[in-house]
Design goal:
91 residues; mainly alpha; 3 helices; flat
Length: 91
């Protein structure tokens, strides 16, 4: 059944339990960042763990890198790289 105009699909908002979990997790943010930094700097940690910790820190600090989406024409040349062709319209 569709909602009427102006009617919310979730009138109660988020369940309180989810908000409680978020708040509890956020209370440990500083410790979590310190742990990630410690793993990142540890020469004893496996390289994979150090890379994962470094990526997690960078993602949280700067956001994830933008994904490039390049559209190619049938000849494999990027569409935006072609000059625009002006068509001559005869009247």
């Amino acid at each position: 059944m569709p909602f009427m105009p102006g009617q919310s699909g979730n009138p109660g908002g988020r369940p309180r339990a989810l908000k409680d979990v978020e708040e509890a997790a956020r209370a440990h943010t500083t410790d979590a960042i310190r742990t990630l930094a410690s793993i990142c700097k540890s020469r004893k940690a496996p390289d994979a763990a150090r890379v994962a910790a470094a990526n997690a820190l960078l993602d949280r600090a700067w956001g994830r890198p933008k994904q490039r989406n390049e559209q190619l024409g049938p000849d494999g040349v990027p569409i935006g790289a072609r000059p625009l062709v002006m068509l001559k319209i005869e009247r």
